[in-house]
Amino acid sequence: MLWEPPSPRVRELIRQGAELSVRPPEEWLAEIDAATLSGPHTRELADDPVLAAATRRANRSNLLFWAAANVQAPGRRVPANVGPPQLDIARDLVRRGLDESALDAYRSGQAVALRLWTQICCGLTIDPAELRELLDVSARSIEAFVDDTIAAIAEQIAREREELTTGSHAERLETVSLLLDGAPIPTARAEQRLGYPLAGAHTAAVVWSDGPGADLAALDRAAELVAAAAGDRRPLTVPAGSATRWVWVHGRPDPEELRARAAALPEADVRIAVGSTAEGLDGFRRGHLDALAVQRMLARLASPHRVATHEEVELVALLTADPKNAGYFVRRVLGALENAEPEVTDAVRVFIAAQCNASHAAALLYVHRNTLLRRLARADRLLPRPLAENVVEVAAALEVLRWRA
User: In terms of Cα–Cα distance, which of 12, 14, 128 is closest to 77?
Assistant: First the structure.
C-alpha cells in the first residue's frame, strides 16, 4: 500500500497527534484490549491468562511503535513491529496448537485504534481539507502497519511451527496433546516418549508468568518446586508456551510447603495453579483440566495469590465463572462486611471453618476468645442478615473475597 507524502502542515499534525498517542489514557488501552480479546476467533486468547496478557502487551507495543515512528517521521510507512511481545505471541500460538487466524484479533484492535485516532485528529484542526488529508494518510498508514505486522508474525509462526515439529520437545508436547485429547495412543508408547509413568496417582499443575519478559529459568524453578512439594524426583514438565509450563507429578504436593517455597522465589509474577489428584490416564487428564480452571480463576479475579490448588478454590471457581454476578452475590450477602478490616472478615471465615466453635477459632487465629467474639459481633452489625441465619452464603462470599484482588 502506497500513498503520496503528506503536505508539511499535515506532517506536523501527524507528529502532534503521535506525541499524544505515545501517552494514551488507560481507558483507551482497555477499550483496545477488550476489542482484541472479544472477537469470534479470539476465545482461546481470552480464556488463557498467559495469551491474554501477551495480547495486551502486544497491543501496547504496537500502539507505541506506530506512534513513535510517526513522531520521528510523520506520514511515512511504519515498518512491521517484530519486537519481543510479537515474538512471544507467535511462540505461544504455535505451542497451543492455534494458527494464524488468531491474529485477526489485531483487526478488531485496529478498528478501535483508528476511531480513537480520529478523535485526536478532530482536535488538531478544523480545516476540512487538512482534516481530510490527515485522516486519509493516517488510515492508510495504520492499515499498512497492521497488515505488515500480521504478515511478519505469521512468518514467525511458520518458523516456530517448523522448530516445534522436530526434536524431543516436539515429541513430548505431541504425546501430551494426544493424551489430553483422549487419542488411543498405547500407554507403553506414551510412557516411553514422555519418560514418565502414567500409572498411579497424578497431580497436574500449570506454572506461568503473566508479566513482561518471562524468566524461563524462573518458570523451570517453580515447576521443580511442585515436584519437590510432592516428593517426586521424576516429574513431567512440558513447555506449553514462552511463559507457561505444564507439570505432572506422582502424588500430591503439600500446599503449605509449596506456598512457602514459592514465596521465596524472587520473581513475583511467577504463579502456580495446582489441579486435582487422581489415578491413571483419567487422573492425568482431569488434573490438567482442573489446573487450567484454577489458572483462569486467578486471572479472572486478578487474584494476588501466587499459589492456588483446585481443592481450595473449586467452589470459588464455580461461583466466579461470571465475575459480574459473583460481585453482585458478594455485595448482597456481605453488605458492609465486604469492606471491613481483614481481621474481621478473617475472624468470620475461620469461625465458620471451625464449625462455629469460638474457642477453636480463636486458637487458630492466635487471639483471645473475647477478641474473636468482639470481631464476630462487629461482623454481625455489618452483615445484612445475622451470621447465624445465613452461614452457608456468608462462607461462600467470604471465600470469593479471600481469593479476588
Answer: 14
Query: The domain 198-312: what is its CATH number?
Result: 3.30.70.270
pLDDT, one tens digit per residue, over 206-262 is 999 877 666 777 888 899 999 999 999 889 998 887 788 999 999 999 999 999 988
Q: CA 148 to CA 141: how far, in whole Å?
A: 11
Quick one: pLDDT at residue 246? Answer: 94
> Average pLDDT over the chain, rounded to whole?
88
**What does the DSSP assignment read for 262-314?**
HHT-S-TTEEEEEEEEEEHHHHHHHHHHHHHHHHHHHHHTT---SEEEHHHHH
Torsion of CA 242, 245, 246, 250, to 10 degrees: 160
Whole-prediction pTM: 0.70
**Site of grid cell 507528529:** 15
Mean pLDDT in residue range 271-294: 94
Per-residue pLDDT, averaged over 303-318, amounts to: 93
**Domain boundaries in the chain?**
8-164, 198-312, 323-403
* 125 Cβ contact list (under 8 Å, min separation 6): 13, 131, 134
Q: In angstroms, rounded to a whole number, what is the distance separating the alpha carbons of residues 115 and 107?
A: 13
Which is more confidently placed, 154 or 380? 380
Task: List residues bridging with 307 in a β-sheet.
Answer: 272
**How far are the Cα atoms of 34, 101, 102, 112 from residue 41, in angstroms, in the given order?**
14, 7, 6, 17
Report CA Rg, the chain. Answer: 26
Q: What is the CATH code of the structural domain delimited by 8-164?
A: 1.10.490.10
- And the C-alpha cell for 27? 481507558
